[in-house]
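thought: fold this chain, then report.
action: predict
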Amino acid sequence: MSMLKLIQDHGHLFINLTAGRFLLDTGAPTSFGRGASVELDGVRFDLPQSYMGLTADVFSTHVGCETAGILGGDILNQFDLLFDGPQEQATISCAQLACAGEALALEFFMDIPILQTTIAGTQARMFFDTGAQISYFQGEALRGFPADGTVTDFYPGMGPFLTGGIVLHALSTVTDFYPGMGPFSTDTFRVPIQLGATLHELRCGQLPELLAMTLMMANTEGIIGNELIRDRVVGYFPRRHCLILS
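observation:
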C-alpha cells in the first residue's frame, strides 16, 4: 500500500512519483509521460512518451502547471484507490482497501468507468472522469437548472475520438483541455445529480455535437468530473467494479 499526497492544482488531482507529478485520470484509457516507467505500490509499468502525439511538455502548457504525464485507466484500474480530498491523501494498493459509505456499481468502456445516475427524474449513464474539472450533461433538461457561468474548453487533434477514448482535463478554473478539437465555450449550470441514495449538486456544461458523439458510443449522456472527490473520501475499486462515496 502506498500513501501519497493528493495534490489539487488548477482543478486537477495529481500525485508525485519518482518521474515527477502525474495527473490521476480515470477518463484516459492510456497513460503516458516522461521517463521509461512508473512504479505504484511496488509494481512497475512501462510508460509511453506520448499519446496520440500529446507529450508531457505539451500537456503541461495546456494544463497550466508542470506535470510529468497522465496515469490513465490502463494503470489505475489494476489497483484499489482511496481518494481523501479533505486530507489531501491518495492511497494506492494492490490489496483490497476498505471505505465506509455507499457502494455504487461501475461499468467500463475501454477502461473508462461508467456510473448510473438520475437527473431530473430520468436515469443517465455518465463516465466517471477524475481528469475533468467540471461535469458534462447532454440532456435537454440542463438549461432548466441554475446558471453558473461560462467555461472555455480546448480540444486539439482528432486522434482519441477515432479510438473512442475520453480524456478531459482542466486548464484553469474556466478552461478545459480535451484532445479532440479546437476551443469552444459552454454555459454551465448547477445540476442535482442522484448517485445511489444521495443527491450531489455538480457544475455541468454541455459538449458540442462532435464530442457528444463519443458519449453515444458507450450509451452515455455525460461525464462526472473530479468535483465529486474534492470535499469527501471516495473509494475507487475498479477490479471490483465499485465506487464508494463517503
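thought: worth noting. The CA atoms of residues 26 and 218 lie 15 Å apart.
final: C-alpha cells above.
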